[in-house]
Design brief:
- By secondary structure, the protein is mostly helical.
- It has one domain (12-82).
- 82% of the residues lie in helices and 0% in strands.
- The chain is flat.
């Protein structure tokens, strides 16, 4: 088991640890909300999750994570504003 699961580092590493797990849990709840047809709550949950993972990408300076979540965010906002 990776040590980060048990004991995150300090500062930026600790922030990234909590944001990534929080965003992941929120996205799982968003999937559940979608499965049960709980709109628009599912979209709001996904927005929070996507923003959380975008923050993790910035904290890690990971351009792939940043890119995929910027695209997802843009698509979600475009879809929500057109409906």
């Amino acid at each position: 088991m990776p040590s980060e699961v048990l004991a995150p580092g300090r500062g930026k590493d600790q922030l990234a640890f909590w944001v990534k797990w929080g965003a992941s849990v929120i996205q799982i709840i968003g999937y559940t909300a979608t499965g049960f047809g709980w709109t628009p709550w599912n979209l709001y949950l996904f927005l929070v999750g996507v923003l959380g993972w975008f923050v993790v990408g910035v904290l890690w300076n990971d351009r792939a994570i940043i890119l995929i979540h910027l695209v997802a965010l843009a698509a979600m906002i475009a879809g929500m504003s057109s409906g």
